[in-house]
Every structure is written in C-alpha cells, then in structure tokens.
Design goal:
78% helix; single chain
Length: 317
C-alpha cells in the first residue's frame, strides 16, 4: 500500500510544480510562497479544530489530528525550518529557470536521500529497486549534463569561463542546488519523524509553523526593499487561480507521503525516488504548453524515469 501512496504523492507533486510555475510567471517568489502557505494552513487547521472540539466525530477517521507533546512540537518546528528553507530556494530557482530543467535537477534529490537511507537507516534495496533507482537517476543526470550552460566560443578558456561566471542565471543554479540538498535532508528527517509521531499531527503543526515563519519573512523582505506584497493575475488570469492549487496539491501530496512513511515496511529511498517521479508531469507541461527546446532529449529522459519507476514498483510490491 505504501508504494501506491508514493505514486499518488508523485502525481500531486507534479501538478504542484506546474501550479508553482504558472503562479510565479508574474509574481514574486516570496509573495506566492507566503500566500500558498497561508492557504495550506487554512486547509489543515479545519481538521485540527474539529479534532479538538468534537474528537468523537473524527477519532476513527483519516482526518483526526492527535495531540503532540513538547518534544514533538520542537522536532516539528525544526522540520518547518528545513522545509521552508528548501522551498524558498526552490521557488526562486523555478521562477528564473525553465521548469523542464528545474524539475529533473530537483529529481536528483533521491540520490542524496538514498545515500542517507543506506548509511543512517540501513535500508537495503533488492535488484529491481536498484535497477529502478539507477535508471531514474541516470536519466536525470543525462538530461542535466545535456542542458548545461554552453560556454561561448571565440575567446580564451579563462575569458570564456569568466564570462560564464558572470551570467545572471548562475545564482539561480546555486539556489537550485541548495534546494536539492536541503530537500534531501528533509526526506531523511521525515523518515525519522514518522517512526515516532502521527503523520496528521506532524503535517498540521509544521504547516502552521511555516505560515507564521513565512509571514514574518515576507514582512521583513518587503520592509527591507520598501515594497508591499502584490499578487498579479497575469495576462490570462491564471496566476491567482494557480496559488490555491499549489496549496491543495501540496497538502494532499504531503499527507499521503507521510502516511506511506508510517508503514513499517516502507523505504525512504524508494518512496523519495517514486515521489520525484512526478517530474514527468512537469516535463509534459513544459513541452506541450511552454514549447521548450530540445524536446527529444526530454522525451528520452521521461522514458528513462518512467521505466525506473516501473522497476521500483515491481520490486516493492
């Protein structure tokens, strides 16, 4: 069952990435992230309040939110800081880089999570799972190297490297790298948390903590730049419609992801790889609607990832 939940999480995560790209097209990353986190907190606070006001009505349902002790709240607060840091870097990079480039790079996160799962949790993959991980991550690496920034010709090597270093997009690649590494730490931390606490409680409280922290960060950001939060609908008006979808897809994706990790037989290395398989949805969106370049390279990458996910599913069922 945990494998099925991982695939549902991946599907929602793919649509989540598309919603982010649409919303960020005409809006600040800070404003979109703040608005989406506030909406997410509005969604999760409903079952929390109902669980406190009428616990007998929700106790035997999937929406019940149990209470959490002080240690649990402190560990959840740490999770909020980790996730929010990763999100901030991810949103900034996604706003300035193509989604079909950002998505596969972010999908390398399972490689780092895999290393942590082997070293920290002692997970051991079978041959099908190894084949799936290698296929998926190998396809992603092939795509990433084929899309590396080209060094201008006609100059000395030092001059060309210096010019490349001054490219305005370099800082966004740095943001993307930080988002990936911090996100990998988040996956390992999730496995640690799900061994001790209820998934609903962790999701609800870390979302609420994020809302508070992101509101403060947004206020400081705009005060520092002497601006104010503005959310624009964009030319098609879809930007504002996409923000609630960001929240909805993320809440669903996180909930089933944490539920999958609560299964004692679940493996974070497999769940993380499957979850990032949602990147194929971002691929399809970039190719069909954004008309991004080098379509055949992206198609081959998608096929490699899909084949890897099939191997993972076969080896885990």
């Amino acid at each position: 069952m945990w494998v099925v939940l991982a695939f549902i999480s991946a599907l929602c995560l793919g649509f989540y990435d598309i919603s982010k790209k649409v919303a960020l097209r005409d809006n600040s990353a800070v404003d979109v992230l703040t608005a989406s986190v506030l909406i997410s907190s509005g969604i999760v606070i409903v079952p929390l309040l109902l669980s406190r006001w009428m616990p007998e009505a929700l106790y035997d349902t999937a929406f019940y939110v149990p209470e959490m002790d002080l240690r649990g709240h402190l560990l959840t607060l740490v999770k909020s800081v980790i996730v929010l840091s990763s999100w901030i870097f991810a949103y900034v990079s996604l706003k300035h880089l193509p989604i079909s480039l950002v998505s596969p790079w972010q999908a390398t996160r399972p490689m780092w999570t895999l290393i942590g799962a082997l070293l920290i949790f002692g997970e051991r993959l079978n041959i099908w799972q190894w084949a799936g991980v290698i296929l998926a991550i190998g396809s992603i690496f092939a795509f990433s190297f084929s899309n590396r920034t080209q060094i201008p010709s006609g100059k000395s090597k030092r001059a060309r490297l210096a010019q490349l270093a001054k490219e305005p997009e370099v800082k966004y690649y740095v943001c993307l790298a930080l988002a990936i590494l911090i996100g990998a730490c988040s996956g390992l931390y999730d496995k640690y948390m799900m061994r001790q606490f209820d998934h609903n409680a962790v999701q609800v409280y870390y979302t609420l903590y994020q809302a508070v922290m992101m509101t403060i960060f947004c206020y400081i950001h705009h005060r520092r730049h002497n601006t104010r939060p503005v959310l624009r609908p964009g030319e098609s008006g879809l930007a504002l419609m996409a923000i609630p979808l960001i929240s909805l897809f993320l809440v669903i994706s996180d909930n089933v992801y944490m539920l999958a990790l609560q299964d004692p037989d679940s493996m974070i290395a497999v769940v993380s790889t499957i979850r990032r398989g949602g990147t194929v949805i971002g691929f399809a969106y970039g190719l069909l609607f954004l008309k991004e370049k080098d379509p055949w390279k992206k198609v081959l990458c998608m096929l490699g990832i899909l084949t890897g996910l099939i191997c993972l599913a076969f080896g885990s069922l």
